[in-house]
Design brief:
The protein is about 35% helix and about 15% strand. The chain contains twelve helices and 13 strands. α4 packs across α5 and α10 packs parallel to α11. It binds iron/sulfur cluster (SF4). The site of iron/sulfur cluster (SF4) has 11 residues, from loops.
Length: about 400
């Protein structure tokens, strides 16, 4: 099993901990993170694939995989067979530091792979309706206040970001907001300005779509590097069942229209449509990948994780053999549609399998795919050089 195959297997099956494992001493703490996706151990597989592996969810107790420590190194075993070494990134030192207002930095932002994720706003309104109309897989309402601070000041955000930049060499900050009655983009705009004015970092944004496309023109001018829209399910009826608030208040059409409008405002590959694989038939996920690719939008495909405490905690996690064809298709389709992949330096996402990571799942590559890969590598060389120089220069100016 190579790293790409192993990443999918581990995301689907989770891992058991051998008695030799010492997470407190050797790993990042397991934090529930925003977006309702991740709650596991952060690791790096050979080839630099970041992964967040489920541990405490009930399905992980039946996993054939186990994490074992031998002579100060960590390995993934399947039954008795050693499959791969895995590096556990240590606990970031800044997690235990406090901001000038006295808040723990780990409650302001969380490392997800190699970037900093921040949920800077109030709780998503779908959690506050009576009865709640939140997405059934989501854990955001269980996180804020318990493991994340709701009140985050500008200074909290900036100090935490600078600490992550200095210690963890982050290049990217990702802001995420739930639904805030249509005000989420205005609120996030402020934080984007804060980070863009004070750091050289790339900034990504994930929020509900707006019908006022002029705001996306403004965000582009302010330096937003990446936009993502979580439509979650491509099938309209499934969207109604799984995400009642989102489906009723925003609707599938608004998602698709805004994604299309933003794909014209931003360049190819700078907009993502996020979908969850495992909560609708695989053909629907593949249909979404094709739909987005035609407009230059890359699909971010999250493997469904039945998180503890959510309404879907007792659903089975998806089977790896159902997920692999989806990611093979994602890799091929994205390149065939000339969507740039992996351009920004040092962005490894642990909670999802990236489109470019699907490369390791393709056994036989035809001429067309090889040509597309060469074209992507050529563009990537120049774009990532540009970002590296920009960030390096910015860090020198800040004295970091
Ligand atoms: S929109 Fe859905 S997934 Fe996003 S925070 Fe709200 S309930 Fe969670």
């Amino acid at each position: 099993m190579n790293s790409a195959q192993l990443k999918i297997h581990l995301l689907c099956r989770g891992i058991q901990l051998d008695s030799s494992v010492d997470l407190d001493a050797d790993a990042r703490p397991i934090l529930r993170t925003r977006g309702g996706l991740a709650s596991g151990i952060e690791g790096i597989l050979p080839g630099g694939l970041s992964i967040n592996i489920p541990v405490y969810e009930s399905f992980a107790a039946d996993s054939p995989f186990s994490l074992v420590k031998k002579e100060e190194k960590y390995y993934v075993f399947r039954d008795e067979e050693e499959l791969s070494e895995i590096v556990l990134p240590p606990n970031p030192k800044f997690y235990s530091k406090k901001t000038s207002s006295g808040k723990l930095m780990s409650r302001i932002g969380v490392m997800q792979g190699t970037y900093l994720g921040i949920y800077p706003t109030d709780i998503c309104e779908f959690w506050k309706t009576d009865p709640p109309s939140n997405c059934r897989f989501c854990s955001v309402g269980l996180n804020l206040g318990s493991t994340e601070d709701i009140d985050k000041t500008d200074a909290d955000l900036l100090e935490t970001t600078l600490a992550a930049m200095q210690e963890e060499k982050i290049t990217f900050v990702h802001f995420n907001a739930g639904y805030l009655g249509g005000k989420e983009l205005e609120i996030l705009e402020h934080y984007i300005e804060l980070i863009k004015k004070n750091t050289p970092l790339m900034v990504g944004l994930q929020a509900a779509p707006s019908a006022d496309y002029s705001i996306y023109e403004r965000l582009k001018k302010k330096g937003v590097d990446h936009l993502s829209f979580c439509i979650e399910l491509f099938d309209e009826e499934r969207l109604k069942e799984v995400c009642p608030g989102k489906s009723r208040t925003i609707g599938r059409k608004q998602y698709l229209d805004t994604i299309e409008a933003c794909s014209k405002i931003f360049m190819r590959g700078r907009v993502s449509g996020e979908i969850i694989a495992g909560l609708e038939p695989a053909e629907k996920t593949i249909e979404a990948i094709d739909y987005f690719a035609k407009m230059g939008v890359v699909s971010t495909v999250c493997i469904f994780r039945p998180l503890i405490g959510t309404q879907y905690e007792n659903l089975p996690s998806p089977k790896p053999e159902d997920m692999i064809p989806i990611f093979q298709h994602l890799y091929r389709t994205t390149l065939y549609n000339r969507i740039p992949l992996g351009m920004a330096p040092n962005i490894k996402v642990s909670i999802v399998m990236l489109a470019e990571e699907g490369r390791g799942l393709i056994e036989k590559k035809g001429f067309r795919l090889r040509l597309c890969e060469m074209r992507n590598s050529f563009i990537k060389f120049f774009i990532s050089l540009y970002f590296k120089i920009r960030i390096r220069y910015g860090k020198i100016r800040l004295g970091l």
